[in-house]
Amino acid sequence: MLSRLTRPQALAVCGLPVVALIATAAFAPLPFSLAQPGLTADVLGENKGTPVITVSGAPTRQTRGELRMVTIEATPPGARVTLGDVLDGWFATDRAVMPHDSVYPGGGSVKDIERHNTEEMERSQDDATAAALGYLHLSPKDVKVDLTLADVGGPSAGLLFTLGIIDKLDGDGSGGDLTGGRTIAGTGTIDPDGKVGAVGGVALKTQAARRDGATVFLVPKAECGDAKAELPKGLRLVPVTTLKSAVDALVALEKGKGEVPSC
């Protein structure tokens, strides 16, 4: 005959599977990535000794100020992220826990993901060129634009590439700079018609922007809430929906006239 367990003994026995489950969860890899503020780059300047924007077939102008595209740095595609890592990142203000598929939407192997990000960047550059030349009513048959930015993938620099091309070719349209001599940062995809799209990770990108001297941050309007969540002091958010709204806001900011939208 089996002896009867006391209540403490029964609880201990029943609790063993729970403890084992928690221990397993704590060390098992989870489908998340940890992200933090990444590098920024001035699209009006050089990156690793090479001009980011090179234009042929049309005169360019000397620019003042900076237009900084921003990135986030995430754990590598194959990195092991555990429950402990997730909990640490969840409560940190300079890190974020993001679904792995949102950071690496290409899926597959590391090479597949790298290929996907490169393709997204190249498509973004083509769209940025088309949007900028379309905005300036210039023909791509006459004006050629080369965009070079090493070690950066994905489409989120589209808006800043477009603004950089416009500033190089036309400035604010009346002899001034789009930047007004400021350090402007921002993020957002762009399509050939000039529509700005959301990108994700904006709370971390604002931190990278302020760290590298930006005082104004252009953000897709749909992501205002996320951008305000951990907004650094001294950084002004300007929501945009289209290329025209971005240019109009920068011109109004530069000249001190007109309405500059805010989140």
Give an overview of the whole structure.
The protein is an alpha/beta fold and 263 residues long. The chain has a domain at 36-72 and 111-255: Ribosomal Protein S5, domain 2 (2-Layer Sandwich). The protein has eight helices and twelve strands. The strands form four sheets. Strands 6-1-5-8-11-12 form a six-stranded mixed beta sheet. Helix 4 (110-135) packs parallel to helix 5 (158-169).
Low-confidence stretches: 7-28
**General form:** globular
| Largest β sheet strand count, sense and barrel closure | 6 strands, mixed
List how many beta strands DSSP finds: 12
- Give the helix level as a range of percent: 25-40%
- The CATH topology of the domain at 36-72 and 111-255 corresponds to Ribosomal Protein S5, domain 2
How would you spell out the order of helices and strands? HEEEEEHEHHEHEEEHEHEH
Class inferred from helices and paired strands: alpha/beta
Beta-strand proportion:
15-25%
pLDDT averaged over residues:
84
CATH class of the domain at 36-72 and 111-255: Alpha Beta
Topology:
Elements: H1 7-27, E1 32-42, E2 46-47, E3 50-51, E4 53-56, E5 66-74, H2 83-90, E6 96-99, H3 100-103, H4 110-135, E7 144-147, H5 158-169, E8 183-186, E9 189-190, E10 196-197, H6 202-211, E11 216-220, H7 224-229, E12 236-240, H8 243-255
Parallel strand pairs: 5-8, 8-11, 11-12
Antiparallel strand pairs: 1-5, 1-6, 2-3, 4-7, 9-10
